[in-house]
């Protein structure tokens, strides 16, 4: 993949500058602009054409959720990653409904943040472990009406793929899964691809939901 163009949006100038410095030091990423509120984010995104927008949620003028919703309409090719302080249910589901591809907390490590940006640029969903758990729980509770049981997998998951699936459903990155299972990161990436394919899932969140429905988790 070519260098990923990133727009940093946060109303706290010190934190925003720290993010710009951190990301700017990584060869895989180019920071193409920054903004202090949602309205500025829309203007900068239109002018700079980023691949990924790191979007704070609680900002003046136009909040991050409203900005995400408009950005997904005005520039549907841009991926939005919510990066905020809180993971309360209201913020999480509002951001995801608005079109954010991922949701991270500001205490995320620098390596995890960069990996999330690269994953988002590839169109992959990226969720903090605590957020992934909320999403799975919410879908499990959507209604209590009986549903037909999903068809079993045509090709079952191997034991190793099940190990990867459990960690993936916890919101772990490929690097974190590799460390936990003592595997090469490239091997984990192959396992994740196989898991998504066997589950018929387009991304990691959908894989976790389908696995839960099949009692694989």
TrEMBL record:
GO terms for biological process: phosphorelay signal transduction system; regulation of DNA-templated transcription. Gene3D superfamilies: 3.40.50.2300. GO terms for molecular function: DNA binding. SUPFAM superfamilies: C-terminal effector domain of the bipartite response regulators, CheY-like. Keywords: DNA-binding, Phosphoprotein, Transcription, Transcription regulation. Residues 5-121 form the Response regulatory domain. The modification 4-aspartylphosphate is found at residue 56. CDD domains: LuxR_C_like (cd06170), REC_NarL-like (cd17535). SMART domains: HTH_LUXR (SM00421), REC (SM00448). Residues 150-215 form the HTH luxR-type domain. PANTHER family: TRANSCRIPTIONAL REGULATORY PROTEIN NARL-RELATED, TWO-COMPONENT RESPONSE REGULATOR. This is DNA-binding response regulator, NarL/FixJ family, contains REC and HTH domains.
């Amino acid at each position: 993949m070519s260098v990923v163009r990133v727009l940093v949006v946060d109303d706290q100038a010190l934190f925003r500058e720290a993010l710009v410095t951190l990301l700017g030091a990584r060869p895989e990423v180019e920071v193409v602009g920054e903004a202090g509120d949602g309205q500025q984010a829309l203007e900068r995104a239109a002018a700079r054409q980023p691949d990924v927008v790191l979007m704070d949620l609680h900002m003046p003028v136009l909040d991050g959720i409203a900005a995400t919703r408009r950005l997904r309409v005005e520039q549907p090719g841009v991926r939005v990653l919510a990066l905020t302080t809180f993971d309360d249910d209201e913020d999480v589901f509002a951001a995801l409904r608005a079109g954010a591809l991922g949701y991270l907390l500001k205490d995320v490590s620098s390596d995890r943040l960069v990996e999330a940006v690269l994953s988002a640029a590839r169109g992959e969903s990226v969720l903090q472990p605590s957020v992934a758990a909320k999403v799975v729980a919410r879908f499990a509770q959507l209604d209590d009406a009986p549903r037909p049981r999903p068809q079993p997998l045509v090709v079952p998951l191997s034991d190793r793929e099940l190990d990867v699936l459990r960690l993936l459903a916890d919101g772990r990155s490929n690097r974190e899964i590799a460390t936990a299972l003592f595997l090469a990161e490239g091997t984990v990436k192959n396992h994740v691809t196989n898991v998504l394919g066997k589950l018929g899932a387009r991304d990691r969140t959908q894989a976790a939901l389908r696995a839960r429905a099949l009692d694989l988790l």
